[in-house]
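Re-run with default settings, no changes from the original entry. Doing this only to confirm the output is reproducible before filing.
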Amino acid sequence: MERIVSEGGVMELWDEMEEQFRCAGVAAMRVILQPRCLTLPNYQSSPRLLYIVQGEGLMGIDFPGCPETYHAMSRRREREMEQREMEGHSHTVREDMHQKVQRFRQGDLIAIPAGAAHWCYNDRDQDVIAVAVHDLSNQANQLDQSLRMFFLAGGAPRSSLSGQTRRLRGQENLQNMMNAFDPELMAEAFGVPIETMQKMQKQDDRGFIVRAESMRMIVPEEEEEDEYEMMEGEEEEVYRRRRMMRRDRDPCNENGSEETTSNGLEETMCAMKVRYNMNTRREADVYSRHGGRLNLVNENKLPVLRLLGMSAERGNLFPNALYAPHWEMNSHSIVYCTRGEARVQVVGSHGQLVMDEMVREGDMFIVPQYFASACKVGRDGFEFVSFKTTSMPMRSPMAGYTSVFRSMPLGVLMNSYLMSRSEARDMKQMRGQQQTYLLSPMRRSRSS
């Protein structure tokens, strides 16, 4: 893993030339953002899914052509500006306006389309830790399958890049893009003095992440944001009940118009939701009382994922549980371990064991499409987030009541494995009555 140390944090990049990453056509990184620090604006040539492992902060994703819908101009300020314009003052100072800024929290999955400029700011006192996966083989990337990051400011400190990293990733992709343009041309394009452009093009050795103590931006108050966002740990049912009570008390908003809620059908790129919290227990798609739970975020829950062609799954497995053997039918799985440990086995197309290891917090591994995998959880439980290279993933379990063997006739199993009818029946039904592919611990029976 390569580390790029900046003034306000660290970027850690898994080696994309490693066999498992090349097989899946993806790249991965982990970002540590210190308090009161800012990741400089940048964009990538491939879609990116970001999972917040720890902390919270502010993020902006800027879509070209979308209006600046955030502004802080008061009515008094508007009247003053109108008066100045009436008096003939043409050079009035406008308040800042920008596109949407939203708060992210631990457990959020954030979708960033290819080519969309974005930035993050940590306005809290705890480090933000985020893991990102880039789908290099996505059709949105018409370049080669390499991780290409285009920074609009700053750049990687030369001392923090090893020679191998410079050869593999290309140092030109890790520097400020503004530096290469002619300053006079850029000054004319922006309509600013050439001195201003030279300041923007000044070589900066602070890195990708910089300290920003005096950050000011237009952000809704927490109370206003909670009208549309569920606070971390709040149950969805309670959230909906609170909204209904507020609507009953005040059927009209401050503008006198009836309050309506979004149904998601009229979403456009400018207003599309780009994040989803995966820590909500009530949102679990699979739950086993003794096995654990899985939260899957696909294009149905987060429509922007249809554009990215990606999705993610959050797993919280209980101690000694078993994630039954299965294979992914239409995607690769890039798995990052967030807590605990587990033994993972992966079997390839020729029946060979390609992985049999204990994985722990901070580890990442890949299960290629159609490769079968199983996971035995340790004594302290196991939590993970799995990134998928499709927006609607499908799996085929080998055990549980949705098992592929459960759908086969007994005769097929008896002749395939040279077993008796009772053994074939046990294989189909012992785990197939009430449990899915999240299986509770089971004692081994002694052979007679």
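The longest strand covers residues 372-388. The chain has ten helices and 25 strands.
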